[in-house]
Specification:
Layout (H helix, E strand, L loop, with lengths): L11 H13 L10 E4 L3 H11 L7 E4 L10 E5 L8 H4 L5 E3 L2 E5 L2 E5 L3 E5 H9 L4 E4 L4 E4 L3 E4 L4 E3 L2 E4 L9 E15 L9 E4 L8 E8 L4 E10 L6 H14 L4 E18 L1 H6 L23 H14 L4 H18 L1 H13 L5 H8 L4 H9 L4 H8 L7 H5 L5 H8 L1
Parallel strand pairs: 1-2, 1-12, 2-8, 5-14
Antiparallel strand pairs: 3-7, 4-7, 5-6, 9-10, 10-11, 13-16, 13-17, 14-15, 15-16
Helix pairs in contact: 2-7, 7-8
EC number: 5.5.1.19
Keywords: Isomerase
GO molecular function, one term: oxidoreductase activity, acting on paired donors, with incorporation or reduction of molecular oxygen
Length: 418
């Protein structure tokens, strides 16, 4: 006797549910998917370090297109640029700290007791290597970034719990810029250089290409980073000429260079005007932007580390979170910083548009005669209304009619958009 077999058919909704469950078995679960940081630069390193502090970090995957993560850079900051509690997680990445700093101008030499610290590409890479939850993939070309995955140029996809784009500065018609360009040589000298602390600006040098100063970081009694910096209207960088000028400067200091340990160079944006809404309209609304990619840097000094620290702390406060949620939070933070930085953009317009190039150094010389706490708040991007009044009061080192012509930001943006 043959028994008939009845086929039991699941309702459609239940069939779909079970099929989805089987599929999920082959996909990384949300809690297993890493936080993907696109670009192995300062912003990504700050986020990874902050989330991994005390060994409690999530799985983090950093994707870098070049063969060398973190490039060849020195990132510096003043002690007052960050909160005191930030040093707990920043310290493992710091290459050197000093108790003071100084500036030199033609008619002013001043030592400040403000602490100063520097991170290098090497110190950051070493710090990242100690984090067991962080993986860095170099030579990885990214094609498309989505909220929950990154698609590589070869077509493969990396699933993610959250994706943050930290690939560095991206030119934008929403920004009116001047430029800070530099070449730095870290050198070993035959004899001690005699520097106890960094020289943030030695503007007693010949002024050319706009505002020029030499930046000095003493890493040992005989090793020093000598960086020739120019604030200029154009972004073209003559590497050979600036390197030659560094050699001339060393000779003038009585230093003999035994060997060059490494070289770095760059062109940083100095923001004269910034159309916030247009800038962010260019960005995907559901992908968090970080660092220079988000326009988060000090408009006048070009320093980016303090802003990267603020964003890293923001990410830590929100974690765990999805890309769209974090993207909105970073945009709100950037809008607040944009409003707070309007005064610095005004100073930049005075420096680049009101002051004649050969007299730009007088603007900074006058600034460095002000009280040290005011200078510290300026670098930290926390100038008060009283600070602003102190900076602007008195006879300006630029013609009054030229200063009045740059007061408003809107005309610069309007001219840019024509």
């Amino acid at each position: 006797m043959i028994q008939s077999r009845r086929r039991f058919v699941l309702p459609s909704a239940e069939r779909q549910s079970r099929a989805a469950s089987r599929l999920e078995c082959f996909l990384p679960q949300p809690q297993e998917r890493p936080l993907v940081l696109v670009g192995a630069g300062l912003a990504s390193a700050m986020i990874a370090q902050r989330l991994s502090f005390a060994g409690k970090g999530p799985s983090i995957l950093m994707l870098e297109g070049s063969d060398k993560p973190f490039g060849e850079h020195t990132w510096s900051f003043h002690d007052h640029d960050v909160e005191s509690e930030d040093f707990a997680w920043l310290t493992p990445l710091i290459a050197h700290r000093w108790k003071g700093q100084s500036v030199r101008f033609q008619h002013l030499k001043r030592h400040l007791t403000s602490g100063y610290a520097s991170l290098t590409s090497e110190s950051v890479a070493a710090g990242m290597a100690k984090l067991s939850n962080v993986e860095i993939r170099t030579g990885t070309r990214v094609g498309t970034i989505l909220a929950d995955r990154v698609v590589l140029d070869d077509g493969s996809a990396i699933e993610a719990s959250c994706v943050i784009d930290g690939r560095g500065y991206q030119p934008s018609p929403a920004l009116v810029l001047g430029y800070q360009k530099f070449v730095g040589l870290e050198v070993e000298l035959t004899e001690p250089h005699g520097l106890a602390d960094p020289v943030i600006m030695d503007a007693s040098v010949d002024q050319k290409d706009g505002y020029r100063f030499v930046y000095l970081l003493p890493f040992s009694p005989t090793r020093v980073l000598i960086e020739d910096t120019r604030y200029t209207d154009g972004e073209a960088l003559d590497l050979q000429q600036l390197a030659a000028d560094i050699g001339t400067y060393a000779e003038e200091q009585g230093w003999t260079i035994k060997r060059v340990e490494r070289e770095e160079h760059g062109v940083l944006p100095i923001s004269l005007a910034h159309d916030f809404d247009r800038f962010w309209a260019e960005k995907p609304q559901d992908i968090p932007q970080a660092g220079m990619r988000a326009g988060l840097f000090h408009p006048t000094t070009g320093y980016s580390l303090p802003e990267a620290v603020r964003v890293a702390n923001l990410v830590a406060r929100m974690w765990p979170c999805a890309s769209p949620e974090l993207a909105s939070a970073i945009r709100r933070h950037a809008k607040t910083r944009h409003r707070q930085q309007s005064f610095y953009r005004l100073l930049d317009r005075m420096l680049f548009r009101a002051a004649r190039p050969e007299r730009r150094h007088l603007v900074l010389e006058r600034f460095y005669k002000l009280p040290q706490p005011l200078i510290e708040r300026f670098y930290a991007g926390r100038s008060t209304k009283g600070d602003i009044a102190r900076i602007l009061v008195g006879k300006p080192p630029v013609p009054v009619h030229r200063a009045l012509a740059v007061l408003r930001e809107a005309p610069f943006l309007k001219a840019r958009h024509r």
